[in-house]
Every structure is written in structure tokens, then in C-alpha cells.
Amino acid sequence: MKFYFPDSQDLVSPTYDFINDEYSPYRVRQRDDVYAHQAVTPIPYDGILVSKAVVDGSMKGAGKYSAPQRERFYRLGVRNFFRLPDTCSTIGDCGAFNYIDEERPPYEVDEVLDFYGRCGFDAGISIDHIIFGYIPEESDDEPEAAWINRQQISLELAEDFINATKTTGARFQPVGAAQGWGPHSYAHSVQQLQKMGYRRIALGGMVPLKSHEILACLRAIDDVRHPDIELHLLGINRVDSMEQFASHGVTSFDSTSAFRQAFMDDRNNYHTATDSYTAIRVPQVDGNPALKRLILSGSISQSQAITAERACLRALREFDREETPREEVLSALETYESLVLGPKKKSYLGHYERTLSDAPWRTCPCALCKKHGIEIAIFRGSERNKRRGFHNLTVLEAKMRSLSFT
Ligand SMILES: [Zn+2]
Predict the structure, then answer these.
(1) Would you tell me the crossing angle of helices 326-341 and 349-358 to the nearest 10 degrees?
(2) What is the pLDDT averaged over residues 56-71?
């Protein structure tokens, strides 16, 4: 089972100074900053997935690359741009989430073919259009006309795509994108894609589905799937169900969720093999918009906020050196939290207590926890938050390795 990490230009700066919260004056972002596969060993994924929409950034909110980065990507190709080791493979897609509101995907087959070919991808997924809707097998509901249309668009583009790879002698593996709204419609897509000549098929639009619904689709696909067809689950990370998925022909998946939970989830920010913890929020006074407003409106004083922020960081570091008891850290956190949150918001203190008692970073074997200690459990700025995300990827990698796929 291969895990691909979808790229969103998430890097960390190895020389970041956590004590003063500043970058080295000598840092050159594109030269010095590192990706997850450079920050930890073993590499926490088998490959990366890069979306054309993320690189090109033409759609609203999709752009993660600056113009010079985009140029470098096209010039160097995917392997050199990411400084990927040979063990990592690459897969490209169009980033269908970025154009869900459009009537048609905004790309032509030849420009996508050019993107995959010129940038040297190992595999490239056909242009697809996501269907938002699920009708379980036993339901009498009818699919919406727009869903049927989107499936048809995806299949037509997939056919043009594989034909074009043959005509142009493309050197990457073409992957057909299957869209559907239930077990039978997914099976229909897979059947059509097989007929076109695809040997690898990516199942899209399944992110909102429950695991049993994904399984229902996979079972229906089993009825039509040739045994040598490999399935990829787009955007899915269900470690608990992966062994089952594998028994239905799934050989790869991609997901950002373990990474993003580090700073997007309300509670499950720091993962371990068996548990997850809430990271300790110590927002930067000058980087926190809510806090800034309170200061500007005169509700709290800036110096009061800075004093409370510094007290938290100092207490946390002393705690990690076993120089300060947990109760004192919690009381510093409580003081700062009451300034930041105001009276209405819920407190995280109960969760922090568990995080501090278990101090999971102390036993984590990953290079980042070893190097940074408690800093990695502090929810504050992208350097800490992304490192915690990279740590989560190492935990996911270890979990995947402990599964048995027959
Ligand atoms: Zn770790």
C-alpha cells in the first residue's frame, strides 16, 4: 500500500530560532527550507501528489506557488524541484477540488498531458469533475442530472487522455479518474476506464463518504474489475480500514489529513500510535488578529499580553526540563488563555493537562520531536505547526507499516 502526500508547498526552515521566534538572516527560502521527506527519516510517504491547479494557481484560492516557484517547477521538473530521492514516486492530478463550481474542468487534455510529461511525473490522473452526492445501493433516489453529466465529462476526458498518451508516446503511467454517486455508478466508471485501456484507476469524490460506503463501492467495483487493475483512493486516509480496502484492489491513497490536523483540528493535533493530543495554544501577540483587535480597542494592554505570552513559553520550556511543575504551567496558560479567548470561548486547559502529563514528544522516536522537545507540541506559527504535521506523517507511516496486506 503506497501513501502519497499531496503537495501544498509545506516546508520548514531548519535554522528557525524557536527561542526568539525568528528566521536566520542568512535563510534563503527556496534553497534552505525543507520538505517533510527531508526533515524526517524514514521518509513518511511513498510519494507525492502534485495538482496542476495548485501549481498554476489560476483558480480562486488554489495558488500555492509564487510565480518564480512555478517557473522553477516547470524548468526543473517534479523530482528536482522537490529534491526527491529515488524511492519516492510522483503522481500528478488536476486538483478537481479547485474547480468544483465550474461547469466544466478548466483544462484541455493536451495542456494536462504537457504538464505531466514536461515535469516528469511517474503517473498522471485524467481530468475529472467531482460529483457531490451519494446514493446508497438500497435507495430509490435518482441521481441529479448534473451528476450524470459530470460522470460523462470525466469519462470522455479520460478517453481523450489515454488516447493522447498513446499518440504522443507519453512516458508516465496514465491513471483513469472514476467518479460516481454510489456503488453501481462507480463500478460503471471503472468498467469504462478498463475498456479504454487503463490499468490504474483513481477513485475520486469519496472524501465525504463513510468507510462502509467506500467499501460498498469497492465491492460493486469488484464485480467488474480485472484482477490486475490497481485502485487509488483520492483524498482518503482511513488507516483502520486500509487492510480491507487493500483486499478490494486498492494499492495506493493520498491524504493531507494527518498533516493538517496538526493545526486545523480543534483537538487532535499531535498524533501517537494509539492516541492523539491537543497542542498547547500560545499564539503570538503580534500574529493573532483577535488579540490585536483587543489591544487596539484598549480592552487589554499590549504589554500585559506580551508578559503573559512569555510566561507561558518560559513555563513550558522549564516544564520540559523538569524544573517547573505542571500546575504552574497550567496557571500561566490559564492567564494567557483568558486574555486571548475572552469570556465566551471554551477553554482548552483540561486537554492541555493531559498533553502535559503524558508528554508524548518525550518518547517519540522522530527526529523533530527529539530535536525540538516541547516546542513541537506548542500551537504557534507555521514553523512549529508544520513540524507537528510532519511528525504526524511519521506516525501515519509507522501505522501503515504495521498493517498486513495480503
Ligand atoms: Zn515526533
Answers:
(1) 150
(2) 80
